Hints:
Number of helices: 9
Order of helices and strands: EHEEEEEEHHEHEHHEHEEEHH
Low-confidence stretches: 301-308, 407-421, 423-428
Helix content: 25-40%
Oligomer: single chain
Amino acid sequence: MSFPMDGAHYFCETLDITRPFPSQHPAGEPSWPFVWNKALTLPFRTAGLDGPNTVCPALLQGMAESRDLEDFDGRRFSYCLISRKCRLHVGPRYKARGLNENSDPGNEIECDQVVWKHPDYSEQPIPWSRYTWRRGSVPLWWTVNIRNGGMGEAEIKIRSTNTFRGSRRYVRRLQKRYMPDPHLHQGSADELAVVAGTDASLQVPVVFFSLLRKGTPDRDRSEAKLAEAFDYMASQLRGMHKLPVSYVALDWHQMDKELGSEALVEGFWAQLSSLLPSQGFALGTMSKVGPDHTDSDGQELSSSISSSGGSAAAAAGRGCSPVGKGWVARWIKQQRGVTRYNCADSLDRTNVGSFFGAVQVFIEQCRELDIAIAATSSSAASMARQALVRRQAAAATAAVLAAAGSSSTAAAAAVVNPATGQDKRSGS
């Protein structure tokens, strides 16, 4: 069995990318569930070659791609998508299903959507925004039986005992990861007391957005049984454990068949739009406060990390955090909670659901950053002025051509006999 390496893994030596951007942790202190070379780097860490002096940076599996773009006002901005796959329960889609003994769902992926504006000059702070969501297998105990040699739909089997063992533990893990940092909170003192309260993570909302088939009266689908169990799990987490868990179910295939793609997307966003505002997305600015990796060569890298890290930490007061080498993030707001998408395989429907959810949040991110992804009043006025100039130029050109044409016609009429149509200069 071959395992792809190229194009599926990435790393960063100067910034912690194992947590949502911008992480205030050093690159040498990663979130280990997302580090795929943890075992391989153990000898180096045992020898003290970790932290700022690490020789083997954390290796992640997933995707990290960015695009430089231009808005309607001609201003440059960038979009970056980062996805990191958890290594604690992975495998082929028919094998890595549900929870394992450590309450880890199969093929869990965390995604960051980062947008930032390019500054007009080098010393100007960089406005940025980040939205994080999750995707993965339904977090309860279930598996599948392959039928017909793998052809057609696999039969879903839900464990009859201890079906939800570990589900609460998994949700609590999400709540703790996406709880706002009190040090970065920019609200009033009363709001800060709530955020910094005892076990404040218990109030962090988690949204499960299920795209499983619900089944129809004329056909009983095994996916419908899984969807029913998932709904029951969420209701128990709300009722018995008093956790702020929301469960949204949308049968993607059936709604697409009945309503069409456009109405389906509208219905999808209508269900999601009322839940996302309570989570929001992270927003702030980035400022350079010391030398970063662009100011160092290879030999100076480790010493520069230590020195610039210290200066960045010193510059990071309340509402601020050090980011990598020589940078400080100033937070305007933080994301509070997370939305998690799933279907049976966490593949096609999850891809589409994640996309349409992220696109709508991207619009709000651009609104906050004053990025004109649609024609604004200023850009519309500029375009209207340009269109007017073009119309005036076209009218002037037409008038000149018309005048030239009429002059030629008049000149021709002066030498042609209207009665005979013959040239007067011919003498005939």
